[in-house]
Design a protein that fits this description.
With about 180 residues, the chain is α+β, with helices and mostly antiparallel strands. Helix content is about 25%, strand content about 50%. It is built from two helices and ten strands, in the order H-E-E-E-E-E-E-E-E-E-E-H. It has helices at about 1-15, 150-175; strands spanning about 20-25, 30, 35-55, 65-70, 80, 90-110, 120-130, 135, 140, 145-150. Strands 1, 2, 3, 4, 5, 6, 7, 8, 9 and 10 form a ten-stranded mixed β-sheet that branches. Strand 5 and strand 6 (about 90-110) form a beta hairpin. The longest helix is centred in the C-terminal third of the chain and has 24 residues, at about 150-175. The chain is elongated, with a radius of gyration of 25 Å. The protein starts with a helix and ends with a helix.
Length: about 180
């Protein structure tokens, strides 16, 4: 009977410990055609995270991955990335001192290839997280999307052309 109680107690402690979940997420981002955008990878509930393996998929006709860098929360981490496959970014991150808290862990820079109105899912296909003892942590993933928004410069150019045309028209009318 004593062994059964000890086993039940141990199982309840394991289920309580595994109930905590780390969230890895990407938000919804916008950018104009031809620009470079920064897409942050966010984490919530990080406790002594020693390593992460992340795979992000996106539409290669809309975006092109350019680089990956650590962000504030991952500032002490060593990061490696593979951008060789269009439409996919693989990230490996290791921090021997452990990552704790919430915030931006890494940032992916993308060139915007798509035209205004185009969009791409930002799908975290995989996010494996391990603590400092190399125990895999329960992880929840939250995906995002990217939308190509209209260029602010186009509206300004139209305004300038209209202004110049109005000034020229006023000068022609004045000469008559």
């Amino acid at each position: 009977m004593r062994k059964i109680l000890c086993a039940l107690l141990l199982l309840s402690l394991i289920s309580v410990a595994s109930g905590a979940s780390l969230v890895v997420s990407i938000g919804d981002i916008q950018g104009s055609p031809g620009s470079t955008v920064q897409v942050p990878i966010m984490v919530e509930g990080a406790t002594d995270v020693g390593s992460m393996d992340i795979m992000l998929k996106y539409d290669a006709s809309v975006l092109k991955a350019v680089s990956v860098e650590t962000a504030d929360l991952g500032k002490n981490a060593i990061i490696e990335s593979n951008l060789a496959n269009p439409g996919q970014v693989n990230i490996a991150l290791v921090d021997a001192s452990g990552i704790n808290g919430e915030g931006e862990i890494a940032t992916i820079s993308f060139s915007v290839l798509g035209e205004t109105g185009a969009s791409s899912p930002l799908s975290l296909v995989e996010a494996s997280v391990f603590d400092l003892e190399l125990v895999e942590q329960q992880t929840t993933i939250s995906n995002g999307a990217f939308t190509v928004a209209g260029s602010k410069g186009a509206g300004y150019a139209f305004f300038l052309i209209t202004l110049v045309a109005a000034v020229l028209a006023a000068m022609v009318i004045r000469k008559k």
